[in-house]
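Hi all, posting the design record for the shared folder.

TITLE: backbone redesign
STEP: 1 of 1
STRUCTURE INPUT:
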């Protein structure tokens, strides 16, 4: 893929520069995140290049779309492919080995002051050994009782015994996280929000298991980031349990989603408080409180995790779906 001519590069640079200062869409943000995720993958290998397969668009789409869309749509990979195309044609990245290797070119130069440092900190990449062996607090090996660590295997992430190769005990991501949630129970979080339709102040509820896992084992958060999509309406048995306890939770049809799901309802106008429009901002708010050490004040109750509230088979299905295509 050849670079654009100088005039076209300058025209596109001016567009990106303007978008960083007064954005009218998300594409430029996707371009920036794509660049820094690729840079992080290269640096984690101690080089200025990495296998293209390691940053395949379908693998990095969740990180690129994080906080913008909770569930990237089926066009997400094509959008990220377009981001890579722009970055290559402007000289920020380049392909080698017939497209099998992607390499860093020049640094992004259209960002606001301080943005480069922020993105490098977020997507900078960890040393490979550290990234592949994160300790899981409160998760003993089922074979020998030693602590387990999160590892990257040929077929994806899994929990393995920290004493490997002496002990070869393993657990899937679903079973390991399920056992971790069982130790303290699943938190039901609450937050104050105005109704999007009538403005009535209301309290909304949701579970966010990733927040619980992060609190229990902070080092796992980044590797399990796809689990951020698991929230109210994702787990049918747990949803039924909560609907029986909270009168402001109800099943409603969403025109935007095109189907019915369990959601918070405004007690005044009964408007559905949607998963993306309402729970998305709530999740970001809770993440900020977690960073400040204030998350405990947002926990309404802790729900015991077992077959009556959250069957393992149901959790496994949702986790495997969420982790499908996650960046390796």
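Okay, here is what came back for every position:
SEQUENCE:
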């Amino acid at each position: 893929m050849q670079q654009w001519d100088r005039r076209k590069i300058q025209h596109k640079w001016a567009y990106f520069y303007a978008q960083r200062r007064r954005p009218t869409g998300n594409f430029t943000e996707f371009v920036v995140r794509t660049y820094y995720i690729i840079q992080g993958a290269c640096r984690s290998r101690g080089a200025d290049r990495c296998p293209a397969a390691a940053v395949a668009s379908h693998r990095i789409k969740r990180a690129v779309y994080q906080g913008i869309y909770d569930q990237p749509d089926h066009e997400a990979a094509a959008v990220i492919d377009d981001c890579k195309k722009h970055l290559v044609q402007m000289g920020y990245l380049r392909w080698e080995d017939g497209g099998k290797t992607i390499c860093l070119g020049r640094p992004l130069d259209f960002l606001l002051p301080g943005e480069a440092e922020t993105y490098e900190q977020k997507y900078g990449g960890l040393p490979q050994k550290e990234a592949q062996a994160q300790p899981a607090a409160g998760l003993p090996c089922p074979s020998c009782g030693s602590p387990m660590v999160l590892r990257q295997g040929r077929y994806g992430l899994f929990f393995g015994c920290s004493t490997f190769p002496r002990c070869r005990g393993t657990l899937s991501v679903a079973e390991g996280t399920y056992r971790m949630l069982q130790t303290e129970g699943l938190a039901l979080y609450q937050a104050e929000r105005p109704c999007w339709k009538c403005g009535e102040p209301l309290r909304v509820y949701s579970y966010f298991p990733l927040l619980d896992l992060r609190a229990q084992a902070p080092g796992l958060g980044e590797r399990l980031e796809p689990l951020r999509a698991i929230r109210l309406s994702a787990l049918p048995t747990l949803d039924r349990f909560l609907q029986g306890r909270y009168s402001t939770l109800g099943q409603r049809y969403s025109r935007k989603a095109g189907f019915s799901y369990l959601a918070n309802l405004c007690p005044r106008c009964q408007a559905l408080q949607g998963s993306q429009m309402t729970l998305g901002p709530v999740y970001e708010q809770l993440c900020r409180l977690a960073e400040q050490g204030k998350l405990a004040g947002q926990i309404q109750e802790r729900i015991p995790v077992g077959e009556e509230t959250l069957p393992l088979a149901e959790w496994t299905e949702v986790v495997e779906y969420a982790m499908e295509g996650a960046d390796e």
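COMMENT: The CA atoms of residues 144 and 165 lie 12 Å apart.
Let me know if anyone wants the other runs.
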